[in-house]
Amino acid sequence: MMRSITRLIALSLIALCATSAGAQSPNGFNSTAPSGNWLVTVDEVIQFQGREGFDAPPALRPRAQVPLIDIIKPEPAPDLKVKAPFGITVHFTGQPDSPIDPATFKVMYGALKLDITGRITKFVKVTKDGFSLENAQIPVGRHRLTLQVQDEKQRLAERELRFEVE
Q: Could you tell me which of 90, 97, 91 has the C-alpha nearest to residue 65?
């Protein structure tokens, strides 16, 4: 009931402002392009369906053709806790039209995305299929690693691993 009243008041205010600006559509609202500082027309507001339109899930879009990064170990989970040293295994999957370019692999640490790629690549060889690091030494605390890799068409994949070392 309250939502209906709120929607009716909002539509009435918009209609009042819109009708003072110009021509009206058959439903009594201004359906011309927005004038002045208005970004949408009243008809667009009506099509949006108020609260129902606001709460509706976004339309599904076709998935972009990008490579994939799968973190195999440690298995990503909310509130992931590990004990150091621990293993990190990552698998890359390129799209059929373009393989992974291992030279583009990067690992960034934390919110500031400090590049620590060299610290990892001195222990492992990164291939088009991924890499496996058996004894990752990371101090106690909460950590965030952002992994990136591109395919040969420069399409970027990014995956984040958040964990806490106990």
A: 97
Enumerate the domain spans of the chain.
Answer: 2-55, 68-165
Give the span between the Cα atoms of 104 and 158, in whole angstroms: 12
pTM over 0.85: no
pLDDT tens digits, one per residue of 39-52: 767 777 777 676 77
Domain 68-165 CATH assignment equals 1.10.220.30: no
Sequence-distant (6+) residues with CB within 8 A of 130 are 70, 89, 90, 91, 92
The span from the CA of 42 to the CA of 107, in Å, is 48
Q: HSE on the CB side for 19, CA within 13 Å?
A: 11
8-state DSSP, 113: T
